[in-house]
Amino acid sequence: MDTPSLTPLESDLLDTQSIVEFLSASTRQQLHDIHYFNVIDSTNVAAMQGIHQGRRHGHVYLAEQQTAGRGRRGREWISPFASNIYMSMVWQFNGRSDISALSLAVGVAVCRALQCLGITGVGLKWPNDILANGKKLGGVLLEMQGDPSHECHVVIGIGLNVLMADNHAALITQPWVDLTSLCDGARPSRNQLVAALLDALVTVLGEYKQGGFAVLKNAWLALDVYAGEEVMVQLGDDYIFGTASGVDDNGALRLHTSMGMQVFHGGEVSLRPKGAL
């Protein structure tokens, strides 16, 4: 797909019809509807509410702005109007699906989508950050409704920095990058970005349902920005230092420490470069 020139912000509003036209035929068949909002508290919240109202598998939620966007561990996600991607999608899983490594699979999908649009240099930080040049480009937030041992619906939330103005960037407390700067001022439209994300998500989720994280593990490892790096894992007020050694078949972080190999799962675990205290 050719990468178009950067368009003015006012002409880069999201448009559901344009997004659908960019989608592959197979993705269109698997999605139910795309719900668009100018301003909303959170696309994840809207998706969770939609599940309760019967809008379940294959429903997508998009917003130009979020007033209460959230990242991992409840952190605020800065969400200015018509600037970035704020998207949530509902997907159904049954009791045969192990969803413990789903956030890692979604990260692979995001990177594949960007690569398909000609955007290179992106990678993943365990468990759910998308990085470029060592800075945060986006993130994944999953929320579940139902019982994973029987049937459940997962809300897959994705935030992606596209064009972050200086006044909003000043509110971000960690190193960040947006696609506009990453692409030297030329990037796909946000509608193309959403379509590419949905195409990649539907494909990866199909792979995940069929073979679990095992079929995506090597793809994730190839995108691991901390592979072989000295890092520290924060567990509450405690820090464990070691060398990042990829992930296991269940998506858990492997850390080679002075005490041997240790394995960490998600939740309240935080991975940082060594010396980032």
Topology:
Elements: H1 16-22, H2 25-30, E1 33-40, H3 43-52, E2 59-66, E3 85-94, H4 102-116, E4 122-125, E5 129-132, E6 135-147, E7 151-160, H5 166-169, H6 179-182, H7 190-211, H8 217-223, E8 230-235, E9 238-247, E10 253-257, E11 260-264, E12 269-273
Parallel strand pairs: 1-2
Antiparallel strand pairs: 2-3, 3-7, 4-5, 5-6, 6-7, 8-9, 8-12, 9-10, 10-11
Helix pairs in contact: 1-7, 4-7, 4-8
What is the average of the pLDDT values? Answer: 88
Main beta sheet: strand number and arrangement? Answer: 7 strands, mixed
From the 3D structure, determine the CATH topology of the largest domain. Answer: BirA Bifunctional Protein, domain 2
> Count the strands?
12
- N to C succession of SSEs: HHEHEEHEEEEHHHHEEEEE
Going across the biggest sheet, name each strand in turn. 1-2-3-7-6-5-4
CATH architecture classification name of the largest domain: 2-Layer Sandwich
Determine and state the CATH class of the largest domain. Answer: Alpha Beta
Q: Over all CA atoms, what is the radius of gyration?
A: 18 Å
Distance between the termini: 42 Å
Question: Looking at this structure, what is the CATH superfamily of the largest domain?
Answer: Bira Bifunctional Protein, Domain 2
If helices are DSSP runs of H or I spanning 4 or more residues, what is the number of helices? 8
Percent of residues in beta strands: 25-35%
Low-confidence stretches: 1-10
Shape: globular
* Structure class: alpha+beta
Tell me roughly what share of residues is in helical segments: 25-40%
